[in-house]
Design goal:
Length: 256
């Protein structure tokens, strides 16, 4: 009986030892699996972190790229705008160069023209009815002095020449009266002058007993008959705005 009990205890001890050994054998692979899982998890977290970092950097690069592209487009538009401005400025410079060349040529042509105009004006005044002759000829001399003045621009010189012509043209419709003297038969007679443009230029003595008209063909004063005393008086009154303008009968001697 005791022998059987020992055998049973021995068997039980063997079974227990085997079971304990078996549990150790099973436990080691599970721990390895768990460790491997932890490693995989850790690696996965690290990988995800790297992916997140790479993604973030990629987004930053994309944003930077888009910004650069936008800036490049803006710079292209601006450069095109500047290029058009430069082209327009170059065109203006070329135009100015052409204008300057034209101005130089114009000056070369205008200066001789102005001298001819001044000479012609003087000749016309000397050939015209001799009203206000001193002032008119003095204006011509001032033009000649202006022409040799370096302080006066060519355009201003030309303007003054044209102004002198304008003044002479206005005399054609001038109605004016003045007083002066006439040399008649060696005597100086005080007279009233009356002018109706360039149509007639008359004079009458203060005592209203004599009248004259300028004959521009002979360049002399021609005495009028008594029948013209009243018309001459009326011309002078009209010139002084003492009477309304109306037709009068007078001999006419204009510039040829």
């Amino acid at each position: 009986m005791s022998v059987k009990i020992r055998k049973s205890l021995v068997a039980t001890a063997l079974v227990g030892a085997f079971a304990f050994a078996s549990s150790n054998v099973i436990a080691d692979p599970l721990k390895d699996v768990q460790n491997a899982g932890l490693k995989i998890q850790t690696a996965a977290v690290k990988s995800q972190t790297k992916i997140d970092n790479v993604y973030g950097q990629t987004q930053e690069l994309i944003a930077e790229y888009r910004s650069i592209v936008d800036e490049t487009e803006l710079l292209k538009v601006y450069n095109d705008h500047v290029a058009r401005l430069v082209a327009d400025q170059n065109a203006q410079i070329e135009s100015f160069d052409r204008q300057i060349a034209t101005i130089d040529n114009t000056k070369q042509n205008v200066v001789p023209l102005m001298y001819r105009m001044i000479d012609t004006l003087e000749q016309f005044i000397k050939a015209d009815v001799p009203f206000n002759s001193d002032n008119r000829l003095a204006r011509v001399e001032r033009l000649r002095e202006t022409m040799v003045s370096s302080s006066v621009t060519t355009s201003e010189k030309f303007r003054q020449v044209l102004e002198a012509y304008t003044i002479e043209a206005a005399y054609s419709s001038l109605v004016a009266a003045s007083q002066g003297t006439l040399e008649v038969d060696g005597k100086s007679i005080n007279v009233d002058f009356g002018q109706l443009g360039r149509i007639t230029y008359v004079a009458q003595s203060f005592d209203l007993k004599h009248a004259w008209v300028w004959d521009n063909n002979t360049k002399q004063w021609k005495e009028l008959g008594d029948e013209y005393l009243k018309p001459v008086k009326e011309v002078i009154r009209m010139a002084r705005k003492q009477a309304t303008l109306e037709l009068v009968k007078l001999p006419i001697f204009g510039a040829e």
